[in-house]
């Protein structure tokens, strides 16, 4: 146990996800030895993230303004919407540079074991978005990009059921299969099975 | 004292994130009861067994005894119940309630609970197959799981004095049907079909259970949920989220065709 403020800092850092007691101690002593300007920058960043960041009123992504950068961008295709679980998934899809449409962030996945049902997610907002014209253009395709795990698949199933009554709307799901750079012999049977069922003609 | 390396079959009840790419997996195993173990690196796409350790997975696992939690070293799939369950939201929510109930009923880790393990695997198999009404499968599971825990409701005889029934009143606090003399204030008066269904589900008489109409099925579900939460002394998170859409009975299907 350290004295007062140092121990308080270790305790606070230890509450962060993925930070154990040893890591918390290492970060605390790094901060103790850091220049005051570095600390001030960190302090400022922490304050701004809590006070200045809001959720986009259209897609639910993190934003500095009422609408996020992607929803404000007129060059993006308003007819295609990619539905993701978390804001970090928007970043992951953006990194591919393959997708030029817009997003809808659900804020999680359907997980009854954690008490998360349809009312806890932004599903109603997605349906409202489909009902109204989005940026002057009708939405023609919804790409469901929830995680390829049990909760993500169940969320996709639920969304398909909710979206199938919208006329002229195509609902697609991200393909799932073998990761690039892997060996076939090491693939588990579930992933390989899905890769086989989702195979495409070349 | 457990050996440093051991193997067992089990059902994945719950997964929790741990650190950068690990997970804590809670399994209900055949020989070792509830086991919590760390599966390292399973959240990475390159993981060799991450997909096998998803909830509802029925797996053959090898563990290494760790200092606080055991470590998963190898996994083979026996039944991938999750594949069938996630394609139907009603069955998925019912299966989630099965897992949460099994988790709550096994407070002690390492205590063998063979009958509950077999019951969980059987319920998940029935839900994944999709041949029976998910709501009935869930209620049958909950009733039998309560019976294994020593909380089987009295369906025919009086729960207090043992007077042979059937009786009209039902009291969750008293533990089932109650006679007119023992009936506490606030007891429910379920339909006769509801009590018939309770008994059929408790004893696995599916021919009778599937012939009962949807109104009695809904009432039964309500009584079963109330009984479970009374005994567990807390609400299950998944139970209010279970989608209850009763399938039409065989007789009703014949009438419409």
From TrEMBL, chain A:
Pfam families tied to this protein: RecR_C (PF21175), RecR_HhH (PF21176), RecR_ZnF (PF02132), Toprim_4 (PF13662)
Zinc finger boundaries on the chain: C4-type: 56-71
Keyword presence, Transmembrane helix: no
GO BP annotations, alphabetical order: DNA recombination; DNA repair
Transmembrane region(s): none
Segments forming domain Toprim: 79-179
Record SUPFAM superfamilies: Recombination protein RecR (SSF111304)
Coiled-coil stretches noted in the UniProt entry, renumbered to this chain: none
Keywords associated with the record: DNA damage, DNA recombination, DNA repair, Metal-binding, Zinc, Zinc-finger
PANTHER family listed in its UniProt record: RECOMBINATION PROTEIN RECR (PTHR30446:SF0)
Protein name (Swiss-Prot/TrEMBL): Recombination protein RecR
Species of provenance: Solihabitans fulvus
